[in-house]
Amino acid sequence: MASYSNLSEEEALKKMQKYCAYQDRCHQEVRSKLLSLHVYGDELENVMMLLIQERFLDEERFAKSFARGKFRIKKWGKIRIVKELKRKAISDYCIKKGLAEIEDDDYHQTIRQLITKKKLVLKEKNEFIRNKKIATFLQNKGFESSIVWDIIKEEIKKK
């Protein structure tokens, strides 16, 4: 299949090596970038294959760094992380490996920290309504409802 790109396969490969070296990328992101550079067909597939062989492109590594980063920096819960990884067409196996990067203790500690922060900004006097708002906030960030409520209940018992 003829390519309408001004880039040779070698030039496309070099561009994608830089693109992948800057930060971990998933296959879907690299494929989209190649298409935007007008690299199609066999050339695209050859570049993808070479990037995988040379370990510039690794879905498992991507899933791990994505999960770690979104959890530590953006404070996303596992549900949100899974949803975003699925949106990027990451396999269930790689998603599982990515989630394994998040320690349960860190996860629960992050939920506790977010609860404490949210309590400081809520003006609600009614404890039931305040806890409901906190739980909704955490669920919107992708944390599991059951874990959130277990921790909120723990906090109530400490009083």
Radius of gyration: 21 Å
Counting DSSP H or I runs of 4 or more residues, the number of helices is 9
Strand content: under 5%
Compute the number of strand runs: 0
Helix content: over 70%
**Helix/strand structural class:** mainly alpha
Number of domains: 3
Overall spatial form: elongated
Mean pLDDT: 94
SSE blueprint and pairings:
Layout lengths: L8 H14 L4 H10 L4 H13 L5 H14 L5 H10 L4 H8 L4 H18 L5 H14 L4 H14 L1
Helix pairs in contact: 1-3, 4-5, 4-6, 7-8, 7-9, 8-9
Walk me through this protein's architecture:
With 159 residues, the protein is mainly α. The protein has three domains: 9-53; 59-99; 104-158. It is built from nine helices and no strands. The chain is elongated. The N and C termini lie far apart (70 Å).
Short description:
The chain is 72% helix and 0% strand.
